[in-house]
Design goal:
Length: about 250
C-alpha cells in the first residue's frame, strides 16, 4: 500500500514544503487538501477520488480550488469531498463564495458522513474517524486493511500527550502520520495553540505501540531541514522520521 506525502507544512507553504495533503493512490483516498494538492495529478490512479477532511482551516482546504487544473492533467469522473456537515457547509459558503472562488471544480461534490460510523473504502479498507481537540474541532483517521494485515493513522491539528484521548484509536497501526508543529523548546505554545510538540508525539507513538512514526505539519518558520528536533523524537521512539513533500511510503 503506497502513501504519498504531497504537503507536510502547517499554516502556510514555504519554498521547501506545501501545506497538508496525503494521498493513497491505490485506494483513491486523500487526507486533507492543502497547497500540496498541486502535486496530485502525478500520482492519481483511476477516475475517482474521495477527499477526507480533518477540518476546514484554510491550510487544509485551499487546495480544493486547484482541482480545475488537476482535471486537465488527470481526469476524474468522481470527486467527493467528505467531512462533518458544518465544515462542508462553511467551505461551500465561504471558500466557494462568488467573491472568493466562484466555481466549484466539476465533478466535485460535498458529502457529509457520520464520524461515529466505520466506512468501507472501495479497496476494502475499513476507515474509522475519531475526534481531536482543536479550535473548531478536528478529526483523525485510521484505515485497516484486514486482508493484508496493514493499517495507518493520520492525525493532525491536535495536542499530543502520552495519554491522549485518541490513543486507543491509533493503537498498533503499522504507520502513524502525526502533526508536530513545535519542537520541545516551544512545548508550552503547543498546549496553548492546540498543536503538538516533538517528545509528546514520540511518547504517544511509543505508548500506542505503533510500527513507525512520520512527523508532519511543521511550523513554516522553523528550520526546514529539521523543524522539530528529530533526534529528540528518536530517543523516545527510534522509528521516527520527518515527512518530506513528495515522500513515498509503503505499508
Amino acid at each position: 500500500m503506497k502513501i504519498v506525502l504531497l504537503g507536510t507544512n502547517g499554516y502556510h507553504p514555504t519554498d521547501q514544503r506545501d501545506t497538508m495533503c496525503v494521498l493513497l493512490p491505490e485506494s483513491g483516498v486523500m487526507f486533507d487538501a492543502g497547497t500540496g494538492v498541486h502535486r496530485a495529478a502525478e500520482y492519481l490512479q483511476g477516475d475517482h477520488l474521495d477527499i477526507y477532511l480533518s477540518h476546514a482551516h484554510l491550510d487544509h482546504v485551499i487546495g480544493l480550488t486547484y482541482f480545475i487544473d488537476i482535471q486537465h492533467q488527470h481526469s476524474l469522473t468522481e470527486l467527493t469531498v467528505r467531512g462533518e456537515p458544518e465544515k462542508l457547509a462553511a467551505i461551500a459558503k465561504h471558500l466557494f463564495s462568488d467573491f472568493l472562488f466562484p466555481s466549484v471544480p466539476p465533478p466535485m461534490e460535498f458529502e457529509a458522513f457520520d464520524p461515529s460510523k466505520q466506512e468501507t473504502l472501495r479497496d476494502g479498507g475499513l476507515l474509522t474517524s475519531f475526534p481531536l481537540q482543536h479550535k473548531g474541532g478536528s478529526l483523525g483517521y485510521r484505515i485497516d486493511w484486514p486482508a493484508e494485515g496493514k493499517s495507518i493513522a493520520y492525525v493532525t491539528d491536535t495536542t499530543a500527550s502520552p495519554n491522549a484521548d485518541y490513543m486507543e484509536a491509533i493503537r498498533g497501526v503499522n504507520l502513524l502520520i502525526h502533526e508536530c508543529f513545535f519542537s520541545d523548546e516551544h512545548a508550552d505554545l503547543a498546549m496553548k495553540k492546540g498543536h503538538s510538540s516533538t517528545s509528546a508525539v514520540a511518547s504517544l507513538a511509543r505508548q500506542a505501540n505503533v510500527g513507525a512514526l512520520i512527523l508532519v505539519h511543521f511550523n513554516p518558520l522553523a528550520d526546514p531541514h529539521d523543524p522539530v528536533g528529530l533526534e529528540a523524537a528518536q530517543q523516545i521512539f527510534p522509528n521516527a522520521a520527518l515527512g518530506e513533500d513528495g515522500m513515498e511510503l509503503d505499508v
